[in-house]
Amino acid sequence: MTAPDIVIDARDVTLSLGKDAAQVDILRGVSLSVAAGESVALLGPSGSGKSSLMAVLSGLERATGGSIRVAGADFGALDEDGLALARRGRIGIVLQAFHLLPTMTAIENVAVPLELEGADDAFARAEAELVAVGLGHRLTHYPAQLSGGEQQRVAIARAIAPRPALLFADEPTGNLDAANGAAIMDLLFARQQETGATLVMITHDIALSRRCDRIVTMRDGRIVEGSVENALAGIDA
Ligand SMILES: Nc1ncnc2c1ncn2[C@@H]1O[C@H](COP(=O)(O)OP(=O)(O)OP(=O)(O)O)[C@@H](O)[C@H]1O
């Protein structure tokens, strides 16, 4: 049995693509346990497997081996539809590129996923989330009418609105300048703490990673032990 306060319980997870001589081993036995409410920074050189690990832990990609339990769901036992259902409402994802729908206003981008989940008060909740990220005056703006920082705030509101137990962020400040990036991170940590969500964030920024409760470093498809500086020797960012 998984302890109730463990949100991610991944054991000996492997991800290999291709077959025989063409096989690429992307994750080579990753075990990771993350407690409810914890924030974890995922660091490591380019190509070390961070995005791939996030993909299997968020149910977007299926691991080749090992076991993954997330928010009580056994990912290995679920088919594609089951994985989509397990993600819905439980897992929020913020990506480096904001992926807002260009034909929808800010409030629609946040409300429509809530409606799909069956919420009756989707627009009221979406408005409250956008107010919480400081965008109460931009509700009916389209993404093209918003700055990069504002678009990322909409993406954060959209990810957090369903109150997911688990929030993944893949370099959420990668497309923003330093000042906007810092403001977005303040916001992401504040919203994470308010909602009690668990946060797993990929970053190349060591200073940013130190704001998390824990730093997990990857290299060559594995989690490595030791100091962050040693583990990151050779990082190309
Ligand atoms: N579909 C694929 N087919 C073959 N190899 C792949 C595929 N997807 C990822 N890889 C390889 O898996 C390795 C890990 O990739 P991944 O994107 O997880 O690394 P990362 O640590 O997130 O890198 P970055 O920091 O550059 O985003 C890389 O060597 C990559 O080339």
From TrEMBL:
<dbReference type="Pfam" id="PF00005">
    <property type="entry name" value="ABC_tran"/>
</dbReference>
<keyword id="KW-0547">Nucleotide-binding</keyword>
<dbReference type="InterPro" id="IPR027417">
    <property type="entry name" value="P-loop_NTPase"/>
</dbReference>
<feature type="domain" description="ABC transporter">
    <location>
        <begin position="8"/>
        <end position="237"/>
    </location>
</feature>
<dbReference type="InterPro" id="IPR003439">
    <property type="entry name" value="ABC_transporter-like_ATP-bd"/>
</dbReference>
<dbReference type="GO" id="GO:0022857">
    <property type="term" value="F:transmembrane transporter activity"/>
</dbReference>
<dbReference type="GO" id="GO:0098796">
    <property type="term" value="C:membrane protein complex"/>
</dbReference>
<dbReference type="GO" id="GO:0005886">
    <property type="term" value="C:plasma membrane"/>
</dbReference>
<protein>
    <submittedName>
        <fullName>ABC transporter ATP-binding protein</fullName>
    </submittedName>
</protein>
<keyword id="KW-0813">Transport</keyword>
<keyword id="KW-0067">ATP-binding</keyword>
<dbReference type="InterPro" id="IPR015854">
    <property type="entry name" value="ABC_transpr_LolD-like"/>
</dbReference>
<dbReference type="InterPro" id="IPR003593">
    <property type="entry name" value="AAA+_ATPase"/>
</dbReference>
<comment type="similarity">
    <text>Belongs to the ABC transporter superfamily. Macrolide exporter (TC 3.A.1.122) family.</text>
</comment>
<keyword id="KW-0472">Membrane</keyword>
<dbReference type="InterPro" id="IPR017911">
    <property type="entry name" value="MacB-like_ATP-bd"/>
</dbReference>
<keyword id="KW-1003">Cell membrane</keyword>
<dbReference type="GO" id="GO:0016887">
    <property type="term" value="F:ATP hydrolysis activity"/>
</dbReference>
<dbReference type="GO" id="GO:0005524">
    <property type="term" value="F:ATP binding"/>
</dbReference>
<keyword id="KW-0997">Cell inner membrane</keyword>
<dbReference type="InterPro" id="IPR017871">
    <property type="entry name" value="ABC_transporter-like_CS"/>
</dbReference>
